[in-house]
Amino acid sequence: MYSLSLPAATASYAYGATVATIKDKTRRASFMAAASTVQARCDSFDLLGASSTFHQAVGSTYVIGGLSADAMTELYDVQFTKRVGTRDIRDGIKNAAPNELCPYCGEGRVTELDHYLPKSLFAGTTVHPANLVPSCHDCNFEKKAYQPGLTNPAVLHPYFDTAFTTNWLAASVSESSLHLPTVKFTVKHFGSDPDLEARLNAHMDVFALRRRFSVWAAQSLTNFEGYLRTAHGRSMTLNAARDHLERTALQQSGERANSWEGAAHEAMRASDWYLSGHLGLS
Q1: 105 and 137 in contact (C-beta within 8 Å)?
Q2: Does the reported pTM lie above 0.85?
Q3: 49 near 154, Cβ under 8 Å?
């Protein structure tokens, strides 16, 4: 999980380039007439992002007079995603993700663009670059048309939120019902900022990251236990194992504050039950 810079393409450029791909002159003219209204809706979106108040967004305030929500959705689905005239905008947003990794989860490969505020409800921002986040298929699928609100905390937005650089992801190793180790992921307690804690938990839940991280971490458990069976690992002591896992946590997490790999290996290092009870290290 990590933050991204805002796309280089502005709202007005993206909208103009998308509308320009419409061949029918009458239809194109109706979209052109709505340009100033669309810009106003995009400006409102940017203000919500800058103030971390996406939970205050209401779809009814993002309508475009004279154009139905279906028309604005089609503008994205047909004109924006399939026309050569908007390819530079699409590619620019996707290519901004380092190593093609999804910023929502930090693991999946970017293949799609996710509407942070769903296009079915927020017509005015269907082609706004700031509302389009490079995403892997799994994150886009899990999020669906999630809409933040007063009872639905907003998930983290890679372009606006700074929480990506705050260390809030935690993990622990426990014994499953099958008497096997499993890694569980949680959000650290932020007593001074309950709203942020609610958003972090929403991010984990909406993208199903607790389950997905746990599935991925199972491979880390397998890899380490396989290493202990090698010539180098058979003589490893408890302290040596802790040192090995600490180095691995640093290597796997890199510069990311909330890497599931780093959290998983740190949890393995800290668990007496896992190292001594389950693996028998001493």
Answers
A1: no
A2: yes
A3: no
What is the rounded CA–CA span in Å between residue 85 and residue 138? 28
Candidates 109, 108, 107, 127; CA nearest to 117 is: 127
Alpha-carbon distances of 161 from 64, 164, 210, rounded to whole Å: 28, 7, 20
Helix (H) or strand (E) holding 181: strand 181-187
Cα angle 125-126-132, degrees, rounded to a multiple of 5 = 90
Q: Cβ distance 145 to 206 under 8 Å?
A: no
Average pLDDT of 34-50?
A: 97
Q: Residues 161-209: pLDDT tens digits? A: 999 988 999 999 998 878 889 999 999 988 788 999 999 999 999 999 9
Which amino acid would we find at residue 111?
Answer: T
Strands 132-135 and 169-175: unpaired
What pLDDT, in 10s, does the model give residues 229-265?
Answer: 998 888 899 999 999 999 999 998 887 889 999 999 9
